[in-house]
TrEMBL record:
Lineage, uppermost ranks: Bacteria, Bacillati, Bacillota, Bacilli, Bacillales
Protein name: NitT/TauT family transport system substrate-binding protein
Organism: Sutcliffiella tianshenii
Compartments (UniProt record): Periplasm
Signal peptide: none
Entry-linked Gene3D superfamilies: Periplasmic binding protein-like II
């Protein structure tokens, strides 16, 4: 009997060891991401999850959509998330308020504006001059979409405050429904909403703000400086997984990307998702590596300054950590 018990114990040990080996030998570490919105614009993030790139790094990613820059940053500051996916301008706003634990941008996801100009009427020969005298349903004041939008309007000789009726008091999540219910002649929208409206005949895409505004760190992964210092390997693994996803998206067709990320857009036809992915790929919206360089950072602050929203100039190295991304890229 005693021999039988010993044999059973040894057998159980072998089972446990085998289970540990099968699971990678270690427990996965949870990383909570708060994304500013749900958009095909963030395709590489969803690819990293669905293709198992985070899992390969031993990370269990928990993704929450927090709908808006203010809410996303509040969630991060209140420790409701470990990492935020949001516009880099938010880190500047926090820093300008005198935070003793600044928010550090460590991996870039998108490198152009991700919004499109949608007209209520079909315009065969659209000109930016068509906006003059119109009602324009814009994004939140001080947010990157609105600032990039105003930058483009000014580039085309349009004064947003005087040449059109600019509406900015609609909550981010309610902008599409406001336009659908009849507010505005033009609206600035993310995908897939812009293409959905076009398919439903509610509006017509006439221009891309991304093509017009140049390279900017439009959406980046960021975390508190303290989190990065306390979890350097976790952040590095996170960035490595992202880089794998960026390379995968860059080397695969829009159709293949659409099929992978479709679970995040269950109410959207795969053909429409493919169209949107192709649109973003063709205009270079998806960053092909996680490095947020100095030129993009400067362009961001120039756009903020032009919009009158730059609280103070911040040096690139103050709020951007490129070492992590560069180390990961150097492993290739």
């Amino acid at each position: 009997m005693r021999f039988l018990k010993i044999a059973l114990s040894i057998g159980l040990c072998f089972v446990l060891v085998a289970a540990l080996v099968a699971c990678g030998g270690t427990k996965k570490e949870t990383v909570r991401i708060a994304e500013v919105t749900r958009s095909i614009f963030y395709a590489p993030q969803y690819v990293a999850i669905e293709k198992g790139f985070f899992e390969e790094e031993g990370l269990d990613v928990k993704l929450t959509t927090t709908w808006g820059g203010d809410k996303t940053m509040t969630t991060l500051l209140a420790d409701g998330a470990d990492v935020a996916l949001v516009g880099s301008e938010t880190s500047i706003y926090v820093y300008a308020q005198g935070s003793n634990d600044p928010i550090i941008n460590f991996a870039q996801l998108t490198q152009t504006d991700g919004t499109f100009l949608v007209s209520r009427e079909e315009l065969a020969d659209f000109s930016w001059e068509d906006l003059k005298g119109s009602t324009f349903l814009g994004q939140r004041k001080g947010g990157m979409p609105q600032m990039a939008g105003e930058f483009v309007l000014k580039k085309h000789g349009i004064d947003p405050q005087n040449d059109l009726n600019l509406i900015q008091n609609v909550d981010f999540a309610n902008i599409p429904s406001a336009f659908a219910s009849g507010t505005g002649d033009f609206v600035q929208l993310f995908e897939p909403q812009a293409s959905i409206f076009e398919a439903e005949g509610i509006g017509h895409i006439v221009a891309s703000f991304g093509e017009e505004s140049g390279l900017i760190p439009y959406t980046t992964f960021m975390a508190k400086e303290s989190y990065i210092k306390e979890n350097p390997e976790t952040v590095k693994k996170f960035t490595r997984a992202l880089f794998k996803a960026q390379a995968w998206v860059d080397s695969h067709s829009a159709k293949e990307v659409a099929e992978v990320i479709l679970p995040y857009f269950e109410d959207t036809e795969v053909g429409l998702v493919e169209t949107v992915v192709d649109r973003y790929k063709s205009q270079g919206s998806f960053a092909t590596d996680p490095v947020l360089d100095t030129a993009e950072w400067e362009n961001l602050q120039n756009i903020m300054d032009e919009a009158g929203e730059l609280p103070k100039y911040v040096e690139h190295e103050t709020l951007v950590n490129t070492t992590i991304a560069e180390d990961v890229m150097g492993e290739e």
